Amino acid sequence: MAQLRIALAQVGPTVGDLQGNAELVIAWSRRAAEAGAHLAVFPEMALTGYPVEDLVLRKSFVDASIETLEATARRLRDEGLGELAVVVGYVDRRSDVRHRVGQPSGAPLDAAALLHRGEVIVRTAKHHLPNYGVFDEYRYFIRGDRLPVVRLHGVDVAIAVCEDLWQDGGPVAVTREAGAALLVVPNASPYERFKDDVRLELCARRAREAGAALAYVNMVGGQDELVFDGDSLIVSASGELLARGAAFTEDLLVADLELPAAASPFTPGQTSVDAHDGSVMTIDRHLVSAEPLAPYEPAAPPRAEPLDDCAEVYGALVLGVRDYVRKNGFESVILGLSGGVDSALVATIAMDAIGAENVHAVLMPSRYSSDHSITDAEELVKRQGINARTVPIRDIVEAYEADLDLHGLAAENLQARVRGNILMGLSNEHGHLVLTTGNKSELATGYSTLYGDSAGGFGPIKDVPKTLVFKLCEWRNERAGSAPQPIPRNIIDKPPSAELRPGQRDTDSLPEYDVLDALLDDYVEKDLGHDALIAAGHDADLVDRVIRMVDRAEYKRRQYPPGPKISPKNFGRDRRLPITNAWREPSARP
Questions:
Q1: How far apart are CA 30 and CA 27, in angstroms?
Q2: CA spacing 20 to 30 A to 230: which of 304, 312, 351, 566?
Q3: Are 279 and 146 in contact (CB under 8 A)?
Q4: For residue 53, how many C-alpha atoms fall within 13 Å in the half-sphere facing its CB?
C-alpha cells in the first residue's frame, strides 16, 4: 500500500471573476501545502465560477479561462507551491471540432486540469452532460472522451467531472479498466433538500464500481438561484465513508489515504476502451512521480456531522442571501416588515446573512393593520437590533383612491403597490437591495400582488412552502439558546393574514396550508395531473380549484425576482411552462 495526503478545497468562486478565482486557488493551495497535502482538488469550473451559461459561447471568455489556467500553474510554481499537484476546474475548448447546427459555438468544454511544477500536465472534460432540471449543458458544451490517469507518488489517480458520477458507464467504468486506485471528482452540485444522503450513497456505489477510493469535492456558495452546499466527502474503494467536509461554508478537507501502489512500471500513452455507455473513451496516462512516499503517521480524518432538515434549508437560505448581496455589490438590504411570519423569517435570514446593522425594515401600517401586527413587528426589530422606520400608508392610499375610484380586489392591491413603491424609492435613495417576502405557496397560487409585494431584487423564501416557513421560524428560535428568540411567539401563533381588508385571513382565499402544500407538492414538483392527484388522495373539488389558481398565476411567477432554490423543482430554472398556454387538465377546464 502507498500513502497520499489529499486536500479537498471546498471554495466559493464568483462567476466571471477569473482573477479573483485564481487568487482563491492560490490561497487555498497554500493552505493545502501547509497542511502537508500532496494533492489538492478544487471544484468544477473553480476558475470561472459555475454555471457561466452563455458566457461560454464567447471566444473571449474561453480564451481568458485557458490563459488564467496556464497563468495559475506558473504562479503556483513561482510562489513555492509547484510540488503540490493541483486539480482545478475551468472552461476549455475542442479545437478539432468544426461548428455545425446543434452544437455550441466554439465547442466549449467543462474541463479540469492537473497542474504541477508550473505546467498543465493533463486536461480533461466532462463526459456526461446533464440536460435536466437546472442544467442545459448540451446547449453549452461538447462532451469529453478521455480519462486521464496520473501516477502521483506511485499511485494512479484518475479524474472525472461531476455528472460523470451520476450516469452509468463512462469515466467510472473506465477507471476500473485503467486500474486506478483513486478517482477524484470536481463538482458543482447544487443543494436540494435530502440530497446529501443521495450523494453519499452514489459515491459509495461508484467507488465500488470503479474499484477505487473516491474523493468528491463540491463547490460552496450562492449563484443567483442556485446554492452550492459543499458537503465534500471521501469514500474507500469498498464504499466506506472516510472523511466529510462541513456544509454551507468554505472548508479544506484533508485526509490521509492508504491506497494500492501501482502494480506495474509506468508506461505512458493512450489506450482506447469501451466506456460501457455506447461510447469509446481514451485512457491517457501521465507520470508525475513514480516512487511511493516514505511511510508517515497518518492523521485522523475529519468527519462533519450531517445537518438536520431545517438546519440544511436555513443554511442554504442564509448562504444564498449573503452571496447574492455580496457578489452583486450591495452592502445592505431593505424589506417590508408586516408583523407576519413571512417577513419575520426573511428579516431573520437577512440578519444572519449580513448582520443586523445592514438590514433595514420598513413598517407600513394601513387602516386595516391590526394593533398586534404593528407591535409584533416593533418587538422583532427590538429583539434583532435591525434598522427600522415607520411609514404609514393610509394617507397615500386615500390620495390614490380619491382620483382612481378603486373597489374590491383593486383597492386591496393598491395598498400592496404603495408599499412596493415606498421600498423601491428607499432602495433607489440609499442603495439597499429590496428583499421580497413571498413564499412558494403564495407564488404557486398567485396569492400576491404584481408590482406590489412581488416587487424587489431577491426573494429569500420564494422556494419555501408556507408550512416550512413556520417550521424554520420555530427552528431558528430554538437555536437562540440563552439569547432572546429572534421571532416573537405571537408572530408564529396568529392566523396568517394579508390585512388588506377588515378581518381578512389567508384561509378566506386558500385552503389550510398543510392541505394546500401537500397538493402543491404533488402538482408542481411531481407533475401529477388531475386524475393522478385525486388518486393520490386529494379532494376532487380542491384539485380543480388549486390547478386553476396555479395555472393562471404563471405570468406573475415569471416576473418574480430570483431566490434560493431548495426544492427539486423551484419556480424558475427548474419549472418552465409557457405563459400563453391554453392547456388545462381535463377536469379542471372552466
A1: 5
A2: 351
A3: no
A4: 6
Concatenate the DSSP letters of all residues of 522-572 into one string. Answer: IIIIS---HHHHHHTT--HHHHHHHHHHHHHTHHHHHTSPP----SSS-BT
Question: What is the amino acid identity at position 317?
Answer: L
pLDDT in tens, 447-464: 888 898 889 999 999 999
Which cell numbers in the block locate residue 575?
419549472
Which pLDDT value is given to residue 132?
A: 84
37 CB contacts (<8 Å, ≥6 apart)?
5, 6, 7, 84, 254
Dist CA 582 CA 340 (whole Å)? 36
How many Å apart are CA 26 and CA 73, to the nearest integer?
9
> For position 523, what pLDDT does the model report?
93
Please tell me the chain's helix, strand, coil percentages from 3-state DSSP, rounded to the nearest 5.
40, 20, 40
Is 535 exposed, middle or buried (CB count within 10 Å of its CB: 0-12, 13-18, 19+)? Answer: exposed
Task: Please tell me the distance from the alpha carbon of residue 425 to that of residue 419, in angstroms, as a whole number.
Answer: 10
pLDDT, residue 504, reads 65
Q: Considering only CA atoms, which of 502, 498, 476, 499 is closest in space to residue 489?
A: 476
Q: How many CB atoms lie within 10 A of CB 424?
A: 17
Please indicate whether residue 126 is annotated as part of the active site.
Answer: yes
Using a 10 angstrom Cβ sphere, with 0-12 exposed, 13-18 middle and 19 or more buried, the burial of residue 464 is buried
Active site residue: 59, 79, 83, 162, which one?
162
pLDDT of res. 588: 53
For residue 167, the SS3 value is coil
Please classify residue 239 by burial: count the beta carbons closer than 10 Å to its beta carbon, then call 0-12 exposed, 13-18 middle and 19+ buried.
Answer: middle
How many residues in the chain?
590
- Between CA 469 and CA 349 the distance in angstroms is 11
Nearest-angstrom CA–CA distance, 37 and 362: 51
Cell of 289: 512521480
Q: Are 468 and 487 in contact (CB under 8 A)?
A: no
Residue 44 designated active-site: yes
pTM: 0.93
Site of grid cell 462541513: 246
Where the chain has pLDDT below 50, the residues are none
User: Sign of dihedral through CA atoms 525, 527, 530, 535?
Assistant: negative
HEC string of 127-165 equals CCCCCCCCCCHHHHCCCCCEEEEEEECCEEEEECCCHHH
Q: What pLDDT, on the 0 to 100 scale, is given for residue 240?
A: 96
Maximum C-alpha span of the chain: 89
Distances (CA, A) of 319 to 247, 392, 440: 10, 33, 19
Q: Is the alpha carbon torsion for 396, 400, 405, 409 positive or negative? A: negative
3-state secondary structure 354-410: HCHHHEEEEECCCCCCCHHHHHHHHHHHHHHCCEEEECCCHHHHHHHHHHHCCCHHH
The pLDDT, as a whole number, for residue 363 is 95
Distance from C-alpha of 590 to C-alpha of 584, rounded to nearest angstrom: 9
Task: Determine which one of 126, 327, 466, 569 is catalytic.
Answer: 126
